Hints:
By secondary structure, the protein is mainly β. It has strands spanning 3-7, 10-13, 18-25, 33-39, 45-51, 58-60, 68-73, 78-83, 92-99, 113-114, 118-123.
Amino acid sequence: xxxxxxxxxxxxxxxxxxxxxxxxxxxxxxxxxxxxxxxxxxxxxxxxxxxxxxxxxxxxxxxxxxxxxxxxxxxxxxxxxxxxxxxxxxxxxxxxxxxxxxxxxxxxxxxxxxxxxxxxxxxx
Length: 124
């Protein structure tokens, strides 16, 4: 069983930065693909970024490419999302997720484990 706990969300002004963390327990973290998704009120859960187990593969949505950076520390069993140049449209609940099969996917259904989410609010 894999447990994921996000932290680092909060309120920030447009143009500011936040770093989200997702700590994992259980399972074999070092072999999982980890993803970040976000969900705004009344909208579907959207892909943000993903990173494969050796950090060899990284993928970003067009909406965040060049502004967000995903990274991981397998020794600490933690994945990070550094968010720079934040915009009001980045406001959402951010979720981390784990794909124990180690694939690179943008589909939420590819990820079997999810955290509870952390709120990010960007004011204009």
